């Protein structure tokens, strides 16, 4: 493996997800596409009529988050999740000033697990929040 290309997040409400990742977190939309049904149907093992919109958002360092919106997929997502449920747990973002981001995001209505905590070794200040669909986001400030 040469690099991590992107992290994909399936969302039920693309507009709300974009407000969170683009407008609140500040990621930049680098590409939005309606994937060809035949291609994505074959690739995913679903039927040829699958409709999928993808939006790639980039952080300042070039890392990507990809939102996947599939209204034709029947399975509903659960927002009742625990940080330690099986599967992908969270995405971590580095921030310059965690106290500032915590206050800014809380004022925007973002749900947090706790207030920021300093790691036991004093290396970082950390907090977890959730996107509108219950996915966990870790914010880390190296001290």
* CATH domain topology of the largest domain: 2,3-Dihydroxybiphenyl 1,2-Dioxygenase, domain 1
Rg over CA atoms, rounded to whole Å, is 16 Å
Shape: elongated
Helix content: 10-25%
Distance between the termini: 30 Å
Q: How many E-type strands? A: 9
The tally of domains stands at 2
Write down the oligomeric state. Answer: single chain
Written description of the protein model:
By secondary structure, this protein is an alpha+beta fold. It folds into two domains: 7-69, 2,3-Dihydroxybiphenyl 1,2-Dioxygenase, domain 1; 90-142, 2,3-Dihydroxybiphenyl 1,2-Dioxygenase, domain 1 (Roll), CATH 3.10.180.10. It contains three helices and nine strands. The relative contact order is 0.19. The model has no long low-confidence stretch (mean pLDDT 87).
Concise account of the structure shown:
The protein is an alpha+beta fold and 143 residues long. The chain has helices at 14-24, 37-44, 98-107; strands spanning 7-11, 28-35, 52-58, 64-69, 90-94, 111-112, 117-118, 124-130, 136-142. The relative contact order is 0.19.
């Amino acid at each position: 493996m040469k690099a991590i290309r992107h992290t994909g997040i399936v969302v039920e409400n693309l507009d709300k997800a974009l407000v969170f990742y683009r407008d609140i977190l500040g990621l930049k939309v680098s590409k939005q596409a309606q994937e060809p049904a035949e291609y994505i149907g074959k690739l995913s093992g679903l039927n040829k009529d699958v409709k999928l919109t993808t939006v790639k958002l980039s952080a300042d360092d070039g890392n990507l988050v990809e939102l996947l919106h599939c209204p034709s997929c029947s399975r509903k997502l659960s927002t009742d999740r625990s940080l330690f449920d099986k599967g992908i747990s969270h995405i971590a973002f580095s921030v310059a000033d965690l106290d500032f981001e915590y206050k800014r995001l809380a004022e925007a209505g973002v749900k947090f697990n706790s207030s920021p905590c300093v790691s036991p070794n004093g290396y970082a200040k950390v907090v977890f929040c959730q996107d509108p669909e219950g996915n966990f986001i870790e914010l880390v400030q190296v001290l």
